[in-house]
Amino acid sequence: MSPIIDSIEALEALYGVPGDASTVKEVPAITPEYRAMIDASPFAALATSGPEGLDCSPRGDRVGELVRVAGERTLLMPDRRGNNRVDSLRNIVRDPRVALMFLIPGHGNALRVNGHAQVSVDPALLESFVVEGKAPRSVIVVTVETVYFQCARAVIRARLWEESAQVAPGSLPTPGRILASLSAGTVGGEPYDSSWAARAKETMW
């Protein structure tokens, strides 16, 4: 017998049928309870798909500014400053399917949203997302198809919000060290790390 599960039937035989609490929580629109979770979240992972493969991008902003709930089936997410790879945006313009997972510091449950997205550069929309005098270059407009919360087991197992579980920054390779290693010293290094704080301050928005 193969140890690989290669059919839905085999998967369902192993895991059984989900209970009511696992299915009734999934709805096709943003409820008041789910909106409260979205409004409280400063961080989300944005998953997209394109011809080159999959992408999962971290998105962070001030509480209340990460996304805007524009309706029970519409989310607006400003595309803030980043590394200009625009992997998520490249995917969206060719395959509009997206998934979002919102995290709330100190809160165990996550919130998941699936839907389709477009990239908008409408001037009025960009202007509405100005922070510290800077507007995003685009806004991701998500049409919601499913919304549901994820129970707290994963966060509890990871001890994600526990101070005692935090990793000391000096115990990991720095971005400059990683870049130098991958580029034979032509990119990154100590200058990259030492200038990061000032660079981030100037390019945060």
TrEMBL record:
PANTHER family: FAD-BINDING, PUTATIVE (AFU_ORTHOLOGUE AFUA_6G07600)-RELATED
Database matches in Pfam families: PNPOx_N
NCBIfam families assigned to the protein according to its UniProt record, in alphabetical order: PPOX_FMN_DR2398
InterPro entries in the record: Pyridox_Oxase_FMN-dep, Pyridox_Oxase_N, Split_barrel_FMN-bd
UniProt source species: Muricoccus roseus
Protein name: Pyridoxamine 5'-phosphate oxidase N-terminal domain-containing protein
SUPFAM superfamilies xrefs: FMN-binding split barrel (SSF50475)
Residues covered by the Pyridoxamine 5'-phosphate oxidase N-terminal domain: 30-151
